Amino acid sequence: MRQVEAAVDSKVNNHSSKPPNFWMKGLSVLDRRFEEILIVTGFLTFIILINLQVINRYLLPFLDIGNITTWTEELSRYLFIFVSFLGASLAIRKRESIQVSIVINRLPGSIQSALHLANLLFMFYFSYMMVTNGFQLISFQIETQQTTPALSIPMGIPYSSIPIGFALIMIRLIQMFIKDTKTMSLKEGLLGIGFAIVMIMPIVFLGDAAIALVLFGYFALFILIGMQIAFALGASTLATVLATDAIPVDFFPQTAFTSIDNFPIMAVPFFIAAGIIMGGGAIIKRLLNLSDELLGFLPGGLALVAIITSMFFSAISGSGPATVAAIGTLLIPAMIKQGYHAGFATGVVATAGTIGVIIPPSNPLVIYGVVSQESISQLFLAGIIPGVLTGLLLLLVVYIISKKNGWQGDRKEFNLKSSAKAAWDAKLALLVPVIILGGIYGGFMTPTEAAAVAAAYGIIIGMFVYRDLGLKGVYRSLVKAGITSSVIIMLMVMASIFGRLITLERVAEIIADFVLTLSENKFVILLLLNLFLLFVGLFLEALAAIVILTPILLPMAIAIGLDPVHFGLIMIFNLAVGFITPPVGVNLFVAASTAKIKIEEIIKGNKYLLLTMIVLLLLISYVPGISMWLPELIRN
Questions:
Q1: For residue 608, which of 347, 273, 364 has the smallest C-alpha distance?
Q2: CB-based burial of residue 27 (10 Å sphere; 0-12 exposed, 13-18 middle, 19+ buried)?
Q3: Dist CA 313 CA 359 (whole Å)
Q4: Sign (positive or negative) of CA dihedral 605, 606, 611, 616
Q5: pLDDT recorded at residue 262
Q6: Among candidate residues 212, 216, 233, 243, the one with its CA nearest the CA of residue 506
Q7: CA of residue 43 relative to chain centroid, distance
Q8: How far apart are CA 365 and CA 267, in angstroms?
Q9: Any long-range contacts for 375-378 (C-beta under 8 Å, 24+ apart)?
């Protein structure tokens, strides 16, 4: 940007400096805000459209404008796809991603810089292929005159989200490249280019190699060098296709579009938006106050408050890290001030945050439902009892530990009047899970519609009732929701492309057959599955693990007689344990950054809570009724 400014100034040195400064300032603002403005506009539009769809269905049926249910859903899906790719571009600019950094962080700084450059080159080339093949796909759509079912607009318009989105990603990668090379030595730059050349050389000689070997080999390589997991999936698939001609390259943009042209998946950004909007204001404070009135008088009062509030907030946000961030900021300093050991206080909040991915609405359950094509409503039902049981057992363990250490609450007794007042003050927050779950299981709304209603509810309550959320707050919340959800959506896009080769090579069936040869005992195989998922949870972020492993492991689970819904809870609970185990425990890092303490201290203070989670995992795995009683009740 400085070079551009210098060039402009040199051309207009005989004129006033005000016009170029004005225009450059405008370009700078556009550069910073371009994706943000479009993301917020898109979010507000499809939140309004989906809520209008629900309102029209039940409250104002006489306003059925042009088959509103059909066209609002279609338009919302297409806007969601555009917003997802815009969010991916913004995530690149803000350097927010899911990646495995364990290996690369241990390397010398010069090697890290060189590998980062190599990653940028691979990501840029993949994006270039998506742009060029994306425009070819649009040309085909125009030539064949294909139109959308409800709106009858040319299909080339929604499909243009792919080349436009990846073109923006290319621009952001170029900006990142320019910025990074300013601090990079010539030696590091040449080393990075050398690494890239060495890594692509095998493609020339791998034509006769097994597709699965090339695919997983390149995926492992890209993961180890610190590439974003989403791009590692896409780039490894592209490398395999270039080496083996397994599938046409023009398949990539079409799959990128169709994989997320899916109404249920829209629940993810809505739940994320609802959690962010309600996690930073009066709603979370009222929930904390209610929890304090209910349990604050017991030994370990504030620690118990952290757990019970996590249970309440989990039924709003559907996210573990979001729950930890919202609650930890307020409670961890207060607990330390009251005399709790810092590691224990932080560990309690981090572990309580795992409830956010078990109790509905859970984003991981939504992702598993979309990938496995299982009912999200059934999965939500399956998560209720395990989630509540997790909360209750954590409460018991924390109570025992606190009583042993003499950590008392700040009050001596329970006050019914104060508790009733706190419950009344928190009534609008407590209504959120009622609206979501009541709407879904009452048959009034789909999970996606319930999520959109929750997001709108959070905006309305924050702006007009509690008045702690202004227009800037809504803007920031929706930008953050757009970035967070786009990282997840990009994972699903790339995993769908990656999964095509897995299906082609029958990888899932081969792995299932191999495991079944090890033992015919269902309980032994289930134990092996748990150990594998626990191991994966140590190194791979939960959502990435779900989209990558579900197509591979689900056939094996079905082969030994597991219900796919039950297996979903087993998988999510295993990966939830990964939230509180190093080296990639997201909850640990969020809590540690809040408390400003080392991870080692949290692990030491968290050992009994981690053991409790392992016991719960075994119960959920080997006692199917804990997860399946409610779903089977509804099925019958």
A1: 347
A2: middle
A3: 10
A4: positive
A5: 86
A6: 212
A7: 17
A8: 11
A9: 375/565, 376/264, 376/267, 376/447, 377/440, 377/441, 377/447, 378/565, 378/631, 378/634, 378/635
At 42, the amino acid letter reads G
pLDDT score, position 60 = 63
Single-letter amino acid, residue 372: S
Max Cα–Cα distance, the chain, nearest Å: 85
CB neighbourhood size of 107 (10 A): 14
Residue 63 near residue 22 (C-beta atoms within 8 A): no
Cβ neighbour number for residue 520 with a 10 Å cutoff? 9
Taking the C-alpha atoms of residue 509 and residue 408, their distance in angstroms, rounded to an integer, is 55
Q: In 3-state terms, what secondary structure has residue 64? A: coil
**Tokens (6 digits) for 50:** 């989906």
Q: What's the CA gap between 543 and 126, in Å, rounded?
A: 22
- In order, the DSSP letters of 266-325 are GHHHHHHHHHHHHHSSHHHHHHHHHHHHHHTTSTTHHHHHHHHHHHHHHHHH--HHHHHH
Q: How far apart are the C-alpha atoms of 219 and 233, rounded to whole Å?
A: 6
**Contact in structure between 481 and 43 (CB atoms under 8 Å):** yes
Contacts (Cβ under 8 Å, ≥6 apart) of 310: 323, 327, 349, 352, 353, 355, 356, 391
- Taking the C-alpha atoms of residue 267 and residue 447, their distance in angstroms, rounded to an integer, is 6
**Distance separating alpha carbons of residues 358 and 613, to the nearest angstrom:** 12
Cα distances from 396 to residues 15, 129, 301, 389, 570, in angstroms, run: 75, 55, 12, 11, 23
Asked if residue 573 lies in contact with residue 314, where contact means CB atoms within 8 angstroms, the answer is: no
In this predicted structure, what is the pLDDT of residue 20?
53
Contacts of residue 259, Cβ cutoff 8 Å, sequence gap at least 6: 492, 493, 496, 497
- CA quadruple 161, 246, 553, 573: dihedral positive or negative? negative
Q: How many CA atoms lie within 13 A of 291 on its CB side?
A: 25
Residue 227 is given by DSSP the state -
- From the number of C-beta atoms within 10 Å of its C-beta (0-12, 13-18, 19+), residue 73 rates as buried
Per-block mean pLDDT, blocks of 10 residues, the chain (636 long): 42 46 66 87 92 80 57 89 92 84 84 92 95 93 88 91 94 91 88 92 74 87 90 92 86 90 88 82 82 85 88 76 78 84 89 88 90 92 93 94 83 82 89 87 88 91 87 91 89 87 79 78 89 86 85 88 94 91 77 78 86 94 94 82
Separation CA 235–CA 351 (nearest Å): 35
Is the peptide bond between 333 and the residue preceding it cis, with omega within 30 degrees of 0? no
Q: Is 154 helix (H, G, I), strand (E, B) or coil?
A: strand
Residue 222 near residue 231, CB atoms below 8 Å: yes
Identify any residues that bridge with 154 across adjacent strands, giving them in sequence order.
Answer: 147
Q: What is the pTM of this model?
A: 0.84
* 8 A C-beta contact, residue 308 and residue 294: yes
Q: The tokens of 106 are what?
A: 């241990």
Q: Which two tokens stand for residue 259?
A: 């994989």
**Contact, 598 vs 592, CB < 8 A?**
yes
SS3 147: strand
Q: ∠ CA 487-566-455 to the nearest 5 degrees?
A: 40
Rounded-to-integer distance, Cα 514 and Cα 508, Å: 10
Provide the β-strand partners of residue 147: 154
Going by the DSSP 8-state scheme, the letter that residue 265 receives in this structure is G
Rounded to 10 degrees, what is the CA torsion of 80, 82, 85, 87? Answer: -70
Angle at which helices 109-143 and 161-181 cross, to 10° = 160
In one letter, which amino acid is 242?
Answer: L
402/120 Cα distance (integer angstroms): 49
Tokens found for residue 322: 């979001």
